[in-house]
Amino acid sequence: MAQKELIYQLTRTGRAAWESQDLAVPEDYRRILWLMDFRGHAAVLKDLLARYPRDVLDEWLAEMEELGLIEPATAGGNGGNAFSTREADRTLAMDQASVRKESESAGAALARTGAYISADRLNKRPSPRKAPADSVVLIVEDDPDQLALADLRVSMSGYKVRVARTVNEFLHSMLDDGAPDLLLLDVLLPDGNGFEVLAKMRRHPVLGSLPIVMLTAENEPEDIGKGLLLGADGYVTKPYTKNILADVIRRVLKQSAA
Question: Which residues contact residue 90 at a Cβ distance below 8 angstroms, ignoring those fewer than 6 apart?
């Protein structure tokens, strides 16, 4: 009889290891922990099997369990402590009064101009010391035409551009190339949800203050409220112009107008 495959989830020690980038933990292990926390065990295993032999991965996971970085998932667990949009919905329902007013303002601004910036978050953000030409914008968008359009418009506005078409590509881009200066994030992605990414980024001790602008066609009041509650710095709704997008990026990054 074949042995049942173990499904793992992160321990507190494991999450702390990747969040702090603990150099005592091998880089490959930190990469697995990072991906597992965002994507869950099953999705990460499928991705890693394309890179490493199965017997190597099995040994790594066993060693990570021995080190206390991961543990077998508990009954009913999600195999990676992945954030759920249902969790965001419950949080929003508990705090609707505090975001209703801003959501209404955001909805009106989006209907009028196609863009909105959270003044409260902007007021708390320190001014950077980078010019647009030295600033990197990472665009996460799965639609090829929309991605090409966003890439063109951000580049024409004088910024450096990196792109990712999926949550998984976004995670690898963050690991391989570091954090950008601003993240343009679509909501509906083939392997995840932009709100999930937003929520996880905001709880990160180092990356939690990364400027994030939602670039999306989702403009219903509940979507706007959810994004604001989870920590979006702003919204740009499709369709949009280069000038609208450039203005939002410039204002969120607190850069002077050209």
Answer: none
For residue 5, what pLDDT is reported?
63
Number of domains into which the chain is organized? 2
Supply the pLDDT for residue 226.
Answer: 80
Closest CA to 8 of 22, 29, 24, 27: 29
Domain identity same for 138 and 204: yes
Residues 171 and 99 in one domain: yes
Residue 67 lies in domain: 8-72
Six-digit token pair at 188?
């509906």
pLDDT means per 10 residues, the chain with 258 residues, are: 66 85 83 79 70 82 91 60 43 53 77 84 80 96 95 96 94 88 94 88 82 86 80 90 94 85
Pairwise CA distance, residues 254 & 167, whole Å: 27
Collapsing DSSP to helix, strand or coil, 136 comes out as: strand
Same domain, 19 and 113: no
Letter for the amino acid at 81? N
In a domain, 236, yes or no: yes
Instruction: Based on the fold, state whether residues 196 and 110 are members of the same structural domain.
Output: yes
